[in-house]
Design a protein that fits this description.
alpha/beta; Rossmann fold; 5 strands; 54% helix; 13% strand; binds thymidine-5'-diphosphate
């Protein structure tokens, strides 16, 4: 692959979307060839799967169904969008990728991190991000931020505080075993300070 693949991860309300926006602006200002996508979604099929996944009416969805839907959306975006862009040498920014399934479904939903790792592999054909930013914050602080923004909760966010704490635990475990792929950033720092770390981590890579 000629391009570079960068992903953004963290619990709900960690501030990663703000950092995605800053990096997009930075790349634009520097004339870089990049695309930005989000998971679940980013393709016509993926956006339809996203609606099913986040719909509050779907309270009967089992953990296995949820996991497989995330993986299905991922398989589609990987083949349809991410791999072709990387082959063309583009920078690909992705708001969430397979680490989300490991942390949310593997750890917090209790499906098992190893089990999810196998499905991640199946969905991506082994494609891995070059750099993953994990914006680390406690569930309480993230909730307080979301409250401030007055955002309506989706089906996953409705799972509650303990769920988000478990998601965080999952990410911390992934970061420990990632051989440096996952860059953990204290998400309680100021927006500019965080972006400085993001930029520094990408030096020489983009
Ligand atoms: P979204 O509105 O995109 O949240 P955010 O802005 O925080 O990324 O909703 C995505 C939700 O789906 C979010 O709660 C995380 C969850 N999710 C999983 O549980 N597993 C996954 O594999 C992915 C990609 C997302």
């Amino acid at each position: 692959m000629k391009g570079i693949f960068i992903t953004f991860e963290g619990i709900d309300g960690c501030g990663k979307s703000t950092q995605c926006e800053l990096l997009k602006d930075y790349l634009k200002d520097n004339g870089k060839d990049f695309i930005f996508v989000r998971e679940p979604g980013g393709t016509e099929i993926g956006e339809r799967i996203r609606e099913i996944l986040l719909d509050k009416k779907n309270s009967r969805m089992t953990a296995r169904t949820e996991l497989l839907l995330f993986e299905a959306a991922r398989a589609q975006i990987t083949d349809e969008v991410i791999k072709p862009a990387l082959e063309e040498g583009k920078i690909v920014l992705c708001d969430r990728f397979f680490d989300s399934s490991s942390a949310y479904q593997g750890m917090a939903r209790g499906m098992g991190m190893d089990f999810v790792a196998g499905l991640n592999m199946a969905a991506t054909g082994g494609l891995k991000p070059d750099v993953t930013f994990f914006f680390d914050i406690s569930a309480e602080e993230a909730l307080a931020r979301r409250g401030k923004r007055g955002e309506a909760s989706d089906r996953i966010e409705l799972a509650g505080l303990k769920f988000q704490e478990d998601v965080r635990k999952g990410y911390l475990e992934l970061a420990k075993d990632s051989d440096g792929r996952i860059v953990t950033i204290d998400a309680t720092l100021g927006i500019d300070e965080i972006f400085k770390v993001v930029k520094e981590s990408l030096e020489g890579k983009i």
